[in-house]
Amino acid sequence: MSKSVNISYEKARKLFIKIAFLLNQVHLQCKVPTASKESINLYTPEKLFKYSEQIGTIQYKGIQYPQHEDNELKLKGIELRLDGEFLKALNIYDKMKKFMVKEDADGWLKHKLLLKNKEIKRVRKITSLLAKGMEKKFGLDYLSFSMDKSMLELPKIQNSPVNKYDQEIAVQHVSDILVSDGFKVTRSSNSNSSYHISVLIRGESVKCRVKHLKYDNAYKASPLPYQVYKIDAFKTFEEQKKKISDVDVIVGYNIHDSAFACLDKKQFEDKKSRVVHAKEGQNSNYFKTWKALQEFNRL
Questions:
Q1: Each residue of 61-88: pLDDT tens digit?
Q2: What is the pTM of this model?
Q3: What H or E segment, with its residue span, contains residue 111?
Q4: For a disulfide at 261, which of 54, 269, 276, 278, Cβ 3.0-4.6 Å?
Q5: 89-136, pLDDT tens digit by residue?
Q6: Where are the domains of the chain?
Q7: Which CATH number among 3.40.1350.10, 1.25.40.10, 3.30.70.1150, 3.40.50.1580 corresponds to the domain 149-294?
């Protein structure tokens, strides 16, 4: 059994922050619990997992209470714990046991770290293993985490039209148009959210649901000298009832024409779809304009 050694607070603090930094680099979220005196919790990133769940802890070890200000704080080391079920879901549990050999009653792997260079090397191997596991599970979504998603569209081949509506591309293009028009924009990180973009209007966050501004087949043989579009804001009335309360405006986007229309959600309270004329006709005053956003009033 190794002899217990006291570690100075300053050296332990540096090691603690290094460990948190390395785990944060592989996109695990480090949060200090409200009542915590000596530990932080590690959570899965919301952008990749359905829910942000606690899957680990980093904790100072050996603190004796009560502590007095005049006494120098001595520590026994730092303990890292990781949830065994999380590691199994990433198919790295057996490999991780080479670096974290002890296991608690709940199936969490743990390892006590001291102030040695080899300990930081161990943590780097642990984070490398976590990164490989999440990359294998989530692919490009993990590799492009917190990056501009439009980089996934590169290289852009000139004169190569998009043949099919793509939700992610539509959201990105609508965001780009809003930013270029001077709006402050935030994109939702929740893939199941009712809205995709929030826009700051007079200090208030307006939630925008982005959908396809498709060609309306009912006007396919129309003699009208302009295009007529349709926005299907919701697939079913059940989806409409469930999601419309968390939406403020509907933005339709057409990738072929680089065209958009922005309508108040009130137009969709009794219908799943709305027609948009490029000129003169129904909702033409909302075509290629942010009038519905600028006039938005939650009252």
A1: 876 655 555 556 667 789 999 999 999 9
A2: 0.50
A3: strand 109-113
A4: 276
A5: 999 999 999 999 999 999 999 999 876 778 889 999 999 999 999 999
A6: 7-143, 149-294
A7: 3.40.1350.10
